[in-house]
Amino acid sequence: MTDYDVLRVFCAPNGGYGNELGVVREGSVLPDREDRQALAAKLAFSETVFVDDPERGIIDIYTPTARLPFAGYPCVGAAWLLDVPELVTPAGVVGARLDGEFSWIEARAEWAPPRTFRQYASAAEIDDLSVPAPGEWIYAWAWEDEPAGRIRARGFPGRGDGIEEDEATGAAALLLTEQLGRALNITQGAGSQILTAPQPYGWVEIGGRVRLEGAER
């Protein structure tokens, strides 16, 4: 079995919730895309990261069914684990920094996969949503406190790969921040926290807490 670490990304202030991420630190043990895809499917995390160069921050990201040029929460988790100033993804170079309890990345909205955004009138409506049928990748959201930039959200990948709801989705938060043009404090899923802030020249920062769940050897 290939060694990998399990991180929890976008944790709540108490360290709970967050989205599990698999990270294969020695990506060289599985150089072929087909083998990486097979392991990502077997691990069944929302995303799995393969580190091809830990010093330069070169990473490769997979869902259980597809390779992604960029994804938000895997980059936040990898940036925390590798402690590097930038990550190199197929989409482009992602800026990275650690600030106290938060790991931050800086990326561009055009790197994120498309999402269908559905705004609701209240956080209670978001809480009551049922998982939709497979199809579109749906990001359902509502203002909890619009002046303060606080949002309640849930993400439904709709891929039919066994992951009915994504607990914390950095790419969707990136797109919503670019759309709304303001800093956001998002509570997603069961209680994960995602922070965002627009930056000059089309960049957006995404931040959250990361913790190491364990290592599988």
Name its key features.
217 residues, alpha+beta, 2 domains, 14-stranded mixed beta sheet, 4 helices, 42% strand, globular, Phenazine_PhzF-like, Phenazine biosynthesis protein PhzC/PhzF
SSE map:
Blueprint: E1 4-11, E2 19-24, H1 33-43, E3 48-53, E4 58-62, E5 67-68, H2 72-82, E6 86-89, E7 92-99, E8 102-108, E9 116-119, H3 123-127, E10 138-145, E11 150-156, H4 170-180, E12 184-188, E13 192-198, E14 203-216
Parallel strand pairs: 2-3, 9-10, 11-12
Antiparallel strand pairs: 1-2, 1-14, 3-4, 4-5, 6-7, 7-8, 8-14, 10-11, 12-13, 13-14
What's the multimeric state? single chain
Number of strands: 14
| Approximate strand percentage | 35-45%
Number of helices: 4
Gyration radius, rounded: 16 Å
Quickly name the level 1 CATH class of the largest domain: Alpha Beta
Question: What is the average of the pLDDT values?
Answer: 95
Task: Please state the structural category.
Answer: alpha+beta
What is the CATH architecture assignment of the largest domain? Roll
Element order: H for helix, E for strand: EEHEEEHEEEEHEEHEEE
Taking pLDDT < 50 over at least 5 consecutive residues as the criterion, the unreliable ranges are none
CATH topology of the largest domain: Diaminopimelate Epimerase, Chain A, domain 1
Pfam families: PhzC-PhzF (PF02567)
Protein name: Phenazine biosynthesis protein PhzC/PhzF
GO molecular function: catalytic activity
Organism: Streptomyces griseoruber
